[in-house]
Write a structure and sequence with these properties.
Length: 85
């Protein structure tokens, strides 16, 4: 009796050749969606609570979240949101 303890290829283990790219792609899309939702929530908080003492923290968090989104959306280093591309 053998026990398959290998992790899926998307997590650095072995797996079927087509599964890693599909799993990794799906996980990447979910991560991008979560980051977009976080950016929208931060922007909403900043717009509706301008006098909050947390405003600067939200601004910094928004900047870092946007940078992370850009790195994941285009790993080659080109900002996909820039106009004129």
């Amino acid at each position: 009796m053998t026990t398959d303890t290998a992790q899926p290829a998307a997590w650095g283990g072995s797996g079927p050749s087509s599964a890693p790219s599909l799993e990794a792609g799906a996980e990447r899309e979910r991560t991008l969606d979560r980051l977009e939702a976080r950016m929208e929530a931060l922007q909403f908080s900043m717009r509706t609570r301008r006098s909050s003492p947390r405003l600067e923290l939200w601004r910094q968090d928004l900047c870092e979240t946007r940078e992370t989104w850009i790195r994941l959306a285009d790993p080659d280093g080109q900002d996909p949101t820039r106009e004129g591309n």
